[in-house]
Each structure stands twice: as structure tokens, then as C-alpha cells.
TrEMBL record:
<keyword id="KW-0508">mRNA splicing</keyword>
<dbReference type="Pfam" id="PF25088">
    <property type="entry name" value="GPKOW_C"/>
</dbReference>
<comment type="similarity">
    <text>Belongs to the MOS2 family.</text>
</comment>
<dbReference type="GO" id="GO:0005681">
    <property type="term" value="C:spliceosomal complex"/>
</dbReference>
<protein>
    <recommendedName>
        <fullName>G-patch domain and KOW motifs-containing protein</fullName>
    </recommendedName>
</protein>
<keyword id="KW-0507">mRNA processing</keyword>
<keyword id="KW-0539">Nucleus</keyword>
<comment type="function">
    <text>RNA-binding protein involved in pre-mRNA splicing.</text>
</comment>
<dbReference type="InterPro" id="IPR008991">
    <property type="entry name" value="Translation_prot_SH3-like_sf"/>
</dbReference>
<dbReference type="InterPro" id="IPR041994">
    <property type="entry name" value="GPKOW_KOW2"/>
</dbReference>
<dbReference type="GO" id="GO:0000398">
    <property type="term" value="P:mRNA splicing, via spliceosome"/>
</dbReference>
<dbReference type="InterPro" id="IPR014722">
    <property type="entry name" value="Rib_uL2_dom2"/>
</dbReference>
<dbReference type="InterPro" id="IPR045166">
    <property type="entry name" value="Spp2-like"/>
</dbReference>
Length: 94
């Protein structure tokens, strides 16, 4: 997601670099990183905006245990896949 144009629509960039406008949430799919060292951002709920790393995946329940790195005490919280997304902005140590 490149930009939220309205609360209901956004602009996204494809893997090929093409911009696609006027996309609705129902048209998007949550991307959960597969790598062990990949970062995620919480996009829903009380921890919204926090960055962390997936410690454990629970695919049968569509959730993951996430350690919130920038949360002062580095809490581990269970989060639904829909509440997190792959974060490519780097971590605290980047």
C-alpha cells in the first residue's frame, strides 16, 4: 500500500512497480512474511502501528505470536493474520 486516498480506498504498488489506484480493502490480501527475521507491522487493534517480529505461526488458527520490538518491554502478543502485515521499513537495529 502506497497511500490511503480515502478511508475506503488506497493506491498500491505491484511487485513489478506499477501503481494501481482506487483499490478497496476487500480487493486486498494480507501478506504474512515467511522468513524468520522478517518484520511485521500491526495494522488493527490496540497495538496498531507497532513493529515486531513473528516468533511463531499458528496457520490453523490464522494467527501468529509477535514480539513487539518497539514496545518498551518487548511484549509477545497473539495476533490474527488480518491484524499484521509484512513491514519493509526496517527495525530498530537497521
Amino acid at each position: 500500500v502506497e497511500d490511503m486516498v480515502t478511508p475506503d480506498s488506497c493506491v498500491c504498488r505491484t511487485d513489478e512497480g506499477r501503481l494501481v489506484e482506487n483499490l478497496r480493502e476487500s480487493m486486498l490480501e494480507t501478506v504474512i512474511p515467511r522468513g524468520e527475521a522478517d518484520w511485521v507491522m500491526v495494522v488493527q487493534g490496540e497495538h496498531r502501528g507497532k513493529i515486531g517480529r513473528i516468533l511463531e505461526r499458528e496457520p490453523g488458527q490464522s494467527r501468529a505470536l509477535v514480539q513487539l520490538e518497539r514496545d518498551g518491554n518487548a511484549r509477545v502478543v497473539p495476533l490474527d493474520y488480518d491484524a499484521i502485515c509484512h513491514y519493509v521499513g526496517g527495525g530498530e537495529d537497521d
